[in-house]
Amino acid sequence: MRYISTRGQSPALPFCDILLGGLAPDGGLYLPETYPQVSRAELDAWRQLSYADLAFAILSKYVDDIPAADLKVLLDKTYTAETYCFARPGDNPADITPIHWLEKDKLALQELSNGPTLAFKDMAMQLLGNLFEYVLEKRGETINILGATSGDTGSAAEYAMRGKHNVKVFMLSPHGKMSAFQRAQMYSLQDANIYNIAVTGMFDDAQDVVKAVSNDAEFKAKYKIGAVNSINWARVLAQIVYYFKGYFAATGSNDQQVSFCVPSGNFGNICAGHIARQMGLPIAQLVLATNENDVLDEFFKTGVYRPRSTAETSVTSSPSMDISKASNFERFVFDLVGRDAAVVRDLWKQVDGGGAFDLRGTPYMDKLPGFAFVSGKSTHADRLATIKAVHEQYGVMIDTHTADGVKVAKEHPQPAGVPLVVLETALPVKFAETIREALGREPERPAALEGIENLPQQVEVMAPDVAAIKAYMVARI
Ligand SMILES: *Cc1c(COP(=O)(O)O)cnc(C)c1O
Question: Which pTM was predicted?
């Protein structure tokens, strides 16, 4: 299996060659040359598999440059009940992503946030950590990951890379801007290869430092600077697995269909659902939910993709969906336009120049319904009402992002026999302030995380000064 760029002007490469990088050299995103198909016989055989075995069956179709026995070891070590230990009482952590019915056979949550940082990013990031370590070891290489975070992604990266050989992580976060819980999660890590830098400023200041360092090609090459951003193909690939797992858990036979509702930001999660469907998984609908930042809802309703400026992007109570530009969306559009890279280049010439594109009146608009997407949006008031209603009706506490999902899911009832699975993307304890506002009480907190705010913390407070931060890194690489 080789990987091609959505812009069509980069050489096709095998999996391990695109694993450590980000964008393709031509500015596009990598996708497999074709989507491997899953036969009915395979679906029947896969229904009973454990999560790790299912992951092996699926990834084997995409990864042919890691020996099967090694891939199996990596997956067995990644998807364990010990790592994904925060299942709801009564749900089985060994399922890794258990289904929790709100209405039997109709509406369910799929728990994707039972990993170490209580958000679905752990599903892919934990595997990425093990893949990075394996490939770097084989090649005798090292990598120094530099990132900026306002919460979820940075902590998921740190928990994935902690203690890994040949990997160091330098993570910038806005000083004093994250919740006490988020700070404790990140800064209490004592691993020698994790460096937390609290930048005096906002998230954008931290992000600007990362951009400045990444734009310094010489520095980047000399110090082997890398990233773990959401456009990494291996992250999308890892996420395909739980759509299959959720399908098997929510249905009684492979004659049934299922629909998924996905709280979306950068389009990474739902892109994996789209690919699962292209592989032949019987998905009736992919229901995309946004918050007030509704660039994706707008596209699926109108055919106009109009990325927003930072100034037009709202700060909301589902902050991991506060995006102005959906970085993985280009992968879907590549498929929508019949994988014609010249068309993608044309469309993104407009996007990269700060503009928009409009597919109304093009043949692609007629193709859109065939991809089975529908969408909706949710606001702060909707989140509060949904958190409250779900708690009252079903006795289940959900986080703000999942609430956006449930709100939009309820607007898209499915035919009888088609369960609707809402992907639960974080646990409520991460967003305590909004839970208090909605329910007038503290969120549930897993016992293992009691008192993490009191653990000793390791963090360096620095100004957003590019030269100083470079010097800090060089002294530690
Ligand atoms: C990242 C994130 C999302 C959005 O996922 P995308 O892949 O960016 O669409 C939703 N909810 C939570 C909690 C997240 O951390």
Answer: 0.96
